Here is the input.
Amino acid sequence: MVQKLIDQIRVLKAERRAVLLAHNYQPPEIQDLADFCGDSLGLSLQASKTDAEVIVFCGVRFMAETAKILSPGKTVLLPDRTAGCPMAEMITAGQLRELKDRHPDALVVCYVNSTAEVKAESDYCCTSANAVAVVQSLPRDRPVIFVPDQHLGRFVAQRTGRDLILWPGYCPTHAYISEDDIRRAREQHPDAVVIAHPECSEPVKDLADALLSTGQMIKFVRTSPAPCFIVATEVGMIHPLKKARPDAEYIPAGSRGVCPNMKKITLEKVLTSLADRQYPIEVPEEIRRRAERALQRMVAILPEK
Ligand code: 13P
Ligand code: SF4
Here is the structure.
């Protein structure tokens, strides 16, 4: 049954000249089928350079929107129209405009986990992989507003030594990972290295050995000699880590780090998406043009090696 679905998807994908992009948190069978699987920065780079006619985005809405903004001539499809990111909804363009009015000299950096309207109000976009490099590139005499993730913002403030004007947004999935989860996992696996996503809370990050985007986690385990890793991010991440270094053991930090929106994408929905061109992402041109400026600056600033 599953193999039949996969075969049908492959046939339709070729007929439609489509490419399948998947985030590292997607269900394993989606990751394995995708033409490219990666973190938000890698996916944005792929979306901006693909020559496919159709992009089927296996992830959440802001990712598909980013692909559409960077490749407006292509059809971008999100297989489940309700797959959103609660963090991206935590600030509106109107709220950001008010914040800018209160800090008229400030430059605005928005995390890619944001709506197209918020990107259009921003000077720079960033992902967790290049947020530090983006903020480091900004003139030191200008204040910086960072939205919407307060936790990534604090991580960037610490790494750059800059005071950032933060917004109280957060990822509900990463908020479920607690200090106790890390402590318990460490007790059970004393030889493990703790890798955490910067979206985690500050107490969790303080207990981690390395703070990394999902793509950086893959590079990290490939080169680390550690036999075991405690993984403080969405559980889907265990799958690409195992593929990257199968001989190591991976322990999810707690059992509640599941992003329900990422899990809405299924093989059946991918097939329907290709067959019926569901659900096309559209961004009004005036917003798209302004959001593209911030995104182009983001893809031009790669993280330090
Ligand atoms: P990265 O893959 O860019 O690290 O982002 C994590 C995330 O939460 C995406 O929604
Ligand atoms: Fe949004 Fe968090 Fe899910 Fe990422 S893991 S898509 S930040 S809710």
About this structure: Residues 24, 39-40, 85, 113, 127-129, 171, 197, 199, 213-214 surround 1,3-dihydroxyacetonephosphate (ligand 1) (CB under 6 Å).
